[in-house]
TrEMBL record:
Keywords: Heme, Iron, Membrane, Metal-binding, Monooxygenase, Oxidoreductase, Transmembrane, Transmembrane helix. Belongs to the cytochrome P450 family. This is Cytochrome P450. It is found in: Membrane. Coiled coil: none annotated. Its cofactor is heme. GO terms for cellular component: membrane. Transmembrane segments: none annotated. InterPro entries: Cyt_P450, Cyt_P450_E_grp-IV, Cyt_P450_sf. GO terms for molecular function: heme binding; iron ion binding; monooxygenase activity; oxidoreductase activity, acting on paired donors, with incorporation or reduction of molecular oxygen. It comes from the Eukaryota. Heme binds at C473. SUPFAM superfamilies: Cytochrome P450 (SSF48264).
Length: 534
């Protein structure tokens, strides 16, 4: 049954891809540009280009199911030089030297664009309820960067007690029906998605909306349905896209629910912004929605619908990566039990010596190191710092990136490279803490590539998980806080176990290494605790 379904699926994909190329005339003039990877190809006839292009696209089908492996093999053969990986829709040029990584991070978004990648990946025009994105970011202001990178980050201490309390409550609710042995069994990835959604809804939309079950359910469903629909749309001819998007998103059910709940709130807040007199007696709400409104253009203000579209587009970035990382983190806690005692001891000592009411997460170096090692080993995305070439682009070393192709950093392969990390396939939870201590003492560390101490939120060539340059993830300080508070809560209150330690933990789609929905974890409440008395 399964193989025949698979064969049928592959056949349908192949058919769709052929129809897409034929109907949309991809085999005409752009062929030459798209397949330009070497000077030799310049001398090819037009027909040879077409054949070469088609061969590359079909070769690229294996990228869909084995992307990280394809990249790791090519990385090993490239010896530090840029290399090219074919995908069904375009080529990816992967770079690994500090100079080229810096160049792509600093390139003008008019040439190498992250925003255009997101647009190609997510097809917002079809999947996000008709909301259209520009190809370049910054055309009408980059308020979201200030809203997240500056305003959200500067309010983290203010939010921390609430985030802590939401995580604690969610865990207790999720794990409230233990069996005879005291353990509750859960599917860890779906549970992490629900918890992260609850926390993020509170930060993003404020307390009132975060309490509405219909709204939080739509907030969770929305990114999943967009990703699912966008994947189907990538192989759908353009004239069918609206219908297919509507079918794949259940007639835009989640987006419509979000719009319906957000519309009155956003309208009211925008009206208050336009007329500050209306604000006089009430303080401004403290949440990302308010900051996104505050940082939107004053001249030619957006309509409420456009504003909601922008808020929802930013919301999209918040749930998926964070829940995947949190899932692998809890699984790693279960798989590497030897780290539990030192992590708990670090926490106990911190609580005992701190005069503050909340934990200072920056003062838990072992926890920071453990999380980094979990990310280094599992790494939910094989590439980072994706940029789509909006024009033909020649990198400093002469490497050509054809218009429409992407240039990226193969972060997963780099993190498994023995020339960068000692014993790269071994989970060594405190390697980063040891390396930092050594670097702080003025010594070199052979265990990591860094030349200076670094933490989870560092965004640089040796730690590109947040991207690089001005586009580096503006939500990383918030993400780090949430990840650390989740682990702290689990360490403090719960004992957890993976019943099937050797079972598969992930599945691959393109460059993503997604946690499996069916991985189960057992949780049992502990009696001895150091944080909030129960
Ligand atoms: C573990 C969790 C996360 C990871 C690994 C992650 C990683 C990334 C990466 C790799 C980029 C692209 C940067 C580049 O290519 O240079 C990015 C962009 C972005 N991230 Fe995150 N992110 C995470 C969580 C979050 C959260 C929680 C938020 C919001 C609070 C957020 C908001 C954004 C936004 C808005 C962008 C787009 C930036 C732009 O276009 O300039 N991310 N993130």
């Amino acid at each position: 049954m399964l193989p025949s379904t698979l064969i049928l699926g592959v056949a349908i994909c192949g058919l769709f891809i052929c129809i897409k190329f034929l109907v949309e005339g991809t085999l005409t003039t752009t062929v030459g540009l798209r397949s330009e990877t070497s000077k030799k190809q310049d001398s090819m006839t037009h027909f040879a280009y077409q054949i070469h292009y088609l061969k590359n696209r079909f070769k690229g089908l294996s990228y869909l199911f084995h992307g990280p492996e394809v990249i790791e093999k090519a990385y090993a053969q490239a010896n530090g030089r840029p290399f090219l990986v074919a995908t069904p829709s375009n080529n990816h040029v992967l770079v690994t030297t500090n100079e080229l990584m810096r160049e792509i991070a600093d390139a003008s978004p008019a040439s190498l664009s992250l925003h255009a990648v997101a647009k190609e990946l997510l097809q917002p025009k079809h999947t996000m309820h008709g909301f259209e994105w520009q190809n370049q970011r910054g055309l009408e202001g980059t308020g979201f960067v200030r809203a997240l990178r500056s305003l959200l980050t500067s309010h983290l201490a203010y939010f921390q007690p609430s985030i802590d309390s939401i995580i604690r409550t969610c865990l207790r609710e999720e794990l409230s029906t233990p069996g005879g042995n005291g353990f509750t069994q859960v599917h860890i990835f779906p549970m992490m998605k629900r918890i992260v959604t609850r926390v993020n809804c509170f930060i993003f939309f404020g307390e009132e909306l975060s309490q509405k079950a219909e709204f939080t359910a739509a907030a969770l469903e929305f990114p999943q349905s967009v990703i699912f629909a966008a994947e189907i749309l990538r192989i759908t001819p353009s004239f069918l896209r609206s219908i297919v998007a509507s079918l794949a998103t259940g007639k835009h059910r989640a987006a419509k629910t979000l719009f319906r709940h957000l519309e009155p709130i956003v309208k009211e807040r925008m009206a208050k912004r336009a007329n500050p007199d209306l604000n006089r007696n009430s303080p401004l709400p403290v949440d990302c929605t308010q900051w996104l409104i505050d940082t939107s253009p004053r001249k030619n203000p957006w309509s409420p619908a456009r504003m909601i579209g922008e808020i929802i587009a930013v919301w999209f970035s918040t749930v998926h990566q964070l829940s995947m990382t949190a899932t692998y983190l809890i699984e790693d806690l279960c798989l590497h039990e030897e780290y539990l005692a030192p992590l708990k001891e670090e926490l106990r000592q911190h609580v005992a010596t701190s005069s503050k009411a909340s934990i200072d997460i920056e003062r838990l170096p072992l926890l920071d190191s453990f999380i980094k090692e979990s990310i280094r080993c599992t790494n939910a995305d094989a590439v980072s710092c994706r940029r789509k070439a909006l024009v033909d682009y020649v990198l400093d070393d002469g490497t050509r990136v054809a218009r429409g192709d992407w240039v990226c950093i193969p972060q997963r392969a780099m993190m498994h490279d023995p020339n960068r990390f000692s014993r790269p396939h071994e989970f060594d939870g405190f390697r980063f803490a040891r390396a930092n201590a050594s670097l702080r003492a003025g010594n070199h560390s052979a265990e990591v590539p860094d030349n200076s101490p670094a933490s989870l939120t560092t965004a640089n060539h040796d730690w590109p998980i947040w991207g690089l340059g001005i586009a580096a993830c503006p939500g990383r300080f918030y993400a780090s806080l949430v990840l650390k508070l989740i682990v702290v809560q689990v360490l403090d209150e719960w004992e957890c176990k993976l019943p099937d330690k050797d079972g598969p933990r992930s599945m691959v789609w393109r460059s993503s290494v997604v946690p499996r929905n069916d991985t189960r974890v057992l949780f049992r409440r502990q009696s001895e605790r150091h944080l909030e008395a129960s």
